[in-house]
Structure formats: C-alpha cells, structure tokens
# Entry
Amino acid sequence: MNRRDFIKTAGAVSLMPNAALAYYPSLPESSFPTSIMQGDLTPSEGVLDIIAGALPGDIHGHVFMAEGIPLERNQLTPTGKGALTRLDFGPNETAFKRKMIETHSSIMQEHVSGLFDKFYLLGGTVYYSPNLGFMNYCNTAPNYMGDNRFALSYEGGTPYEFDAMSLDLITPVGNPGEWRTSLPPIADALTPDKWLFPQVRTTGHPFFDLERGECFTINYGGVIGELGTSDGYLRLIRWNMQGALEAWNVVSRQGANAYLTATAHSLGVTRNHILIFETAARVEATRIMGTRIVIPQKHRTPVWIIRKADLASGAEQVVADYIELDFDTSDIMCNYDDYDGEVTLYGQYLGAMDKSEQQFYLELLHFGGWVPSDVAGYPTAPVDVGGLVQARIKVSTDSAWEIKEDFRLIRDEYLLWDMNDPAYRGHFQFPETFDHIYWAAIGYRPEHLVKRVADAYRKYPNRLFNNDSLPQTAIPSALVHMDCRNMLIADAYQFPEDCVMRTPQFMSRPGSLAQDDGYIFTAVVRKHPSGPQSNGKEFWLFDARNLAQGPVCILGHQDLNFATTNHALWRPEIGPRPADAYKADYADFFREKMPCHSQQVREVLETYILPRFS
# Structure
C-alpha cells in the first residue's frame, strides 16, 4: 500500500458474520429506521424515561445537540432546518429542552409567501430566495466560548451565539460588512443589492481558544468548483470575542491568493500554528441547476499552514505554506502541543465516499432498484470501508512538509464504515496531546448505495472493496475507541442492525482529567424501539472504558422527536449569558434595505427579527 502502514484492529471483536461478503440475488428487507428523516418542528421539554439500564450515580453536566430536519423530499438531511436540544444530566433523572434554531433567514422563511420572496431548495442542498438570498440554518455544531457564552456554527453561513438556558439565538458573530460574499464575481455581479442574506462560506468548526480568549475561523469563496480560481480567496479571521473581527487574506509564498474548491469542515489550531483544511465534501457547481453530476474526491487533503507569529495587526495578508496529505478527511483534529514545529493530526480516513451526496428519489441503486420516497435526501452509503489516521507535519520558519514515515492508518472491514463524528475530552478545544478519541462509524447499507456515486468512485485509489465485492447485507453502526498513543482500536461496540448511531460526545467523570474516564453519549434512531416508552429516538450511554459491554443506560421520551443529528457538546456547568456580552448590529443593515422589499418582508423584519436581535 505504497508508504502506508496498514494496521488491523486490535482489541475489538467484530460481530459481523462472514456471510456479509456472500452474493445475494436480491437484497433483504431494509432494517433502516426511516423515522430519522422526520423531526418535530415545535419546541418540547420534559424528563427522559429510562428505557433500559440505570443512570450512573456520578453522571452530570449538560449535552447540547444540533440536528437537521429535511423539509421536503431530496433535501440532504444533515443540512435541514436546524433544531437544538439540551440534556441536563443528574444522578436521578435527565431533563431535556428542544427548540428550533431561529436565525434571521430561517425566521423569514417561516413567514414569507411571495413568489420571489419564498425560499426554494436548489439541488437538494441549499435554500435560496431570489429577493432575499441564501438560508443559514446554523446547525452543524454547538461550541463553548467561555464565560457562559455558546455559539452555533455552520459551513454555509455566519455563526450565531445562543443562550444556554433558553436556547434562543442572541446575535450573529460579526457585522454584515465583516464577512465577504462567497459567490464568484460573475454571480455576485448579478446579485440584487437588496439581498438581506448573502451567501457566506466558513468552517463548521471555528476554534475557540479559552486560554487566550480568542477565536479563529475563516471566510472563503470566489470560485465555482475548480473554475475561476484566479478570483478565489481565503481569509483567516481572528476575533477577541468582544469587538470587531480581524481578517487577513491568505497568500502563498509566491504571493498568489489561497483558495478552496470544496469545503473546510475542520480547522486545526495549535499553540503556534493554524491549519486550514480543504475537506472531503463537495457540492458540485452544477448541482443547484438540477444536475446530479458527481465529481469524486481526490484522495488528498490540501492544507494551508499559517504561523500565528505572522499575524500582524493592521496587515492585509498573511503568508501560508501549502501541502497535500494523501487521504480524504472531514473531521480532523491536532495536538495543541506543537513543540519544535511538529504538528500531530488525527482524523477520519473517508476512503471512497462523499458526505455531500444524498439519495435522490427514484434514482437507480447500485444493487438494483430505485431510491424510495421515504429515504430520498438521506446520505448515500460509502463505496468502500473507511478508517482512522494519524499524520504528522513539520513546520520550519519558511516551509512545511509531511513527516511521511509517521503516517498511520487503521482500517477494519467490519467496523469502520462511514466514519463520522469524533468525541473527546474538551470537545472542540484540543488537548496538549490526544490519548483517546471515540468515533462514530455510521455503518453501511447496500440499499443506500446509488449507482451514480458507486460509478464515480469505481477507480478511487487504495480501495479494500471494489464495486463488485461490496457487501450485500447491512453492516451496523459502531462506536469505536481509538488509542492514539498506539494507533489501534482498543475497544468497540457494534449496534443492532436496526439502529443508526450518530453524534457521540465524551462526558467526564467529576474531578477526573483522564481522557478515557467518563461516559460516551450517543444519539440513536431505531426501527424497533428499545421499549414501550420509546418512540425509537433514543440516547445510549456507555462507560468510556468498556464500550464492548454495551450501553449502561438507554433514555428516551415519546415527545422528543429529533431527526438527523450533527455534532454535540458537553459542559459540566452552564449559566445565563452575560447581559453585557458582545452583540452584532444588523439593525441599520436591515433598515437600509427594507424600502426595497415587499410589505410582507418588511413586516417580518419589524415584527419578528429586529425586536429579537436589536
């Protein structure tokens, strides 16, 4: 496998039979829980029922969980209308509170009906209004900012701060003029000046450094896929979480503008460096025009590496070194410690899969048949098994390169299908050195593999399965414990086949600093509920040091109906947001454009948006 060290799983016992690789003339009835496609659009709260097991006596703290709810057929489910749930854990009971994520644009969507004011779903991915602009559901990840301040982030729009107690959004991060539109110049030139919601592209995971009291994020765009790269731009943003945003245009050592042609789901921040990753989720430029063309990922992760020491206040640009890592990834983290310029990364190995591709109604499946209506919009199955990687980079004063001999790759053909979210102590704040990371592998379902995607990835490199040898039975979700020191799977649990598990989160035990001493929270949707008190939308809790024994407790409630969950966040304590904390000023921006809009739009601004956010 070229330079790669192929590491077989150690310490994890697979529950899948060898029959998974056998030939079947027709696929069995699907065990997939289609209820993951539906979620309530109204608030709810209550006390969770214990469906099985018992709450650990030392469990504590609060979990925040974001989700996406598809509003119509073919909408990519993780990008659906946003909802935010808070779970309050105690030794005797767990309360929940769930609300819709009400951004400026999502409030507007609920109330407008004019032909050119309404939002229309483009390519199953993004909502667009001819008169108003683009939707920002802000549903990727909750983040802790320090001092009882929390933010929601989203790759297709600006972050918003929210109050931990009420779950209400308080303010966008940054004023309108501090973010650049991500549209290419030719499209921007055709944009009406009256737009209230310009398209802004950023990272799904801004980095809030609690020790230094600063946030790093990005703003990028200007290209149409691989076209128009001369107009592409990439801006690094630093924010002191109090005042205006600082921004630098990122340029190469040759003075050319840096740019991204796909997405930037993750951002890496160490003590002395910032790493901007181009990650493996690509929305094809022609998708919004109705095509279903798939441009496969390239088995690489471009990285722009910036030295914090080069960030001069008042400067317009900063120089970055560019390298390419030889694998595709989406969620990738790094040790905060970068002694002697050595940066250590841990991430998914996605392999032949595309997180941005959904199943479209009635399109042809790889194993025959067509996509049914009740799963149209759910992400397509992977075309190969994934994995977990360690990569290391050396950064000198004037260059950077990968330390290729330190690359490690774990692949397991029974566990590591559709690698998704990580969970670790201090989520979204990186530890000095990673010792333990827990990963969600969503699994594999042959009835979700569309021919269009399978064909596009037929020649993808480094595959363990080719299109003719792919399993024809389901491989269930798995929760995996990665030992970072030894780069092996130390422990794992494979869920029943009718489960889809997403959104793991590490919950520390009181007083413990160990990265494996606590509980792992997971969101699970089942086709067959775990008990009569469950509606199939459940939370399974695991002892972080013994996943294989199964969940220690399963929680649920008939009135808690979430859809496809994204990232989560755990905090030991929460409180009200400080009254004098930062607030962006959008009132003048909206009022300036109001005369250009319909009476209905003006009424929504005056009645619902300005009173709440001013």
In short: The chain has a mean pLDDT of 94. Residues 352 and 457 are 6 Å apart (CA to CA).
